[in-house]
Specification:
By secondary structure, the chain is of the alpha+beta class. It contains 5 helices and 8 strands, in the order E-E-H-H-H-E-E-E-H-E-H-E-E. It is about 25% helix and about 30% strand.
């Protein structure tokens, strides 16, 4: 795990997720409630292998990137993007362990991920989320209060430009 910030005991630091972080990612899964898992994967998943960890760890740090929030060597959150075929957009997903939700970790991870994405030539994130996921809607509104949400069957979809001023 390549740290993006200086580590301090008991404090959250951000680091780039690496292919070798599979065990840490598996342990994160067990810190997620069924509701958090459902909101992240839009599907009820009971075991870490059902989340396809090999796909989540398929990172090249250009087209597929992930930033983890880490406390004392344990992952407590992950923000990940996957570049779409049009090459300038990437699908983004964020998850934070239940005990750490509401403390600004998603905002920090997403800001860091957006910076890495811009460096890789990505100019917008696409987002898919459940229409009743108020925390995710709040996160989206913090980054782009004018985002136009398309609604279909209980799911919102939108696109967020990665302007430097948006993620400050």
């Amino acid at each position: 795990m390549l740290q993006l910030e200086a580590a301090r005991a008991g404090h959250v630091v951000l680091a780039r997720l690496e292919r070798s972080d599979g065990e840490l990612l598996r342990r994160l899964f067990y810190r997620l409630s069924p509701e958090t898992i459902y909101r992240r994967f839009l599907s009820p998943i009971a075991r870490p292998d059902q989340a396809r960890p090999e796909r989540l760890l398929d990172l090249d740090h250009r087209d597929r990137e992930a930033v983890a929030a880490v406390v004392d060597g344990e992952i407590v959150g992950v923000a990940r993007y996957f570049r779409l075929p049009d090459l300038t957009a990437a699908e983004v997903a964020v998850v934070v362990a239940d005990a750490w939700q509401g403390q600004g970790l998603a905002t920090r991870m997403l800001s860091s991920l957006a910076e890495l994405a811009r460096t890789a030539g990505i100019d917008r994130f696409t987002v898919t989320l459940q229409a009743d996921n108020r925390p995710a809607l709040g996160l989206l509104r913090r980054f782009n209060s004018s985002a136009r949400l398309a609604h279909s069957r209980g799911i919102y979809e939108t696109s967020i430009p990665l302007c430097p001023e948006v993620f400050q």
